[in-house]
Amino acid sequence: MENYKKTKIVEKPCPLPFTDLPPDIIEMKVKDGSKIRNLMGYAIGKMELDSVRQILFTGSGKAVSKTITCVEIMKRRLKELHQITKVLFKQIEEIWEPIVPEAGLDALTVKRNIPAICVLLSKDALDPQEPGYQAPGSFDAFWIKTLKAESQGQMKRKQGGGRGASSTGKHPRSAGGASGEPCAKS
């Protein structure tokens, strides 16, 4: 590839994975270089209006994590948002041209599939049977349950059972191996 340079990147149009979206839905296309502050200022301002009921966040490649961050900020700011998340792949074509055209090399076309995410947030209830659906507050309920289970596990560890607490633990010491004598090989 040292004899080639990338001259063009073509993104294949990818249809949105959601059906029945209103034609005037606000779509936040998150890019790798997008500033979260700018995206969220606009998106939150629009969602605070009574006339706006849904917003769609999309991102691909390196922008997937930034898209998720924006969605989580939005859900913390505006409670009671229903969410449907779709993960998909977007195809891009890279055109590579030879650096020295006289060398007799052909142009190359490289097709790549990159991950993409689409997240629909809605003030109105969405279909809970739809794959990727999250009800409002379900994330908080998950973490409360998880933290409660972790704290109970820590309490059990504090009550004993640490190293040397008893001679019959997970791995009881064998009579011959602990004293320094060589173990018999079978």
Characterization of the model:
25% of the residues lie in helices and 29% in strands. It is α+β, with helices and mostly antiparallel strands. Strands 1, 2, 3, 4, 5 and 6 form a six-stranded mixed beta sheet that branches. Helix 1 (36-47) crosses helix 2 (64-77). The N and C termini lie far apart (56 Å). 13% of the residues are buried. It is found in: Nucleus. Residues 27-87 form the DNA/RNA-binding protein Alba-like domain. Keywords: Nucleus.
> What is the radius of gyration computed over CA atoms, rounded to a whole number of angstroms?
27 Å
Strand and helix order: EEHEHEEEH
Mean pLDDT across the residues is: 84
Task: State which percent range the strand residues make up.
Answer: 25-35%
Q: Tell the overall outline.
A: extended
User: Which range best describes the helical content: under 10%, 10-25%, 25-40%, 40-55%, 55-70% or over 70%?
Assistant: 25-40%
- Give the beta-strand count: 6
Distance between the termini: 56 Å
List the uncertain runs. Answer: none
Number of helices: 3
Profile the largest sheet. 6 strands, mixed
- Class inferred from helices and paired strands: alpha+beta
Subcellular location: Nucleus
Region (Disordered): 152-186
InterPro entries: Alba-like_dom_sf, Alba-like_NAB, DNA/RNA-bd_Alba-like
Family: Belongs to the histone-like Alba family.
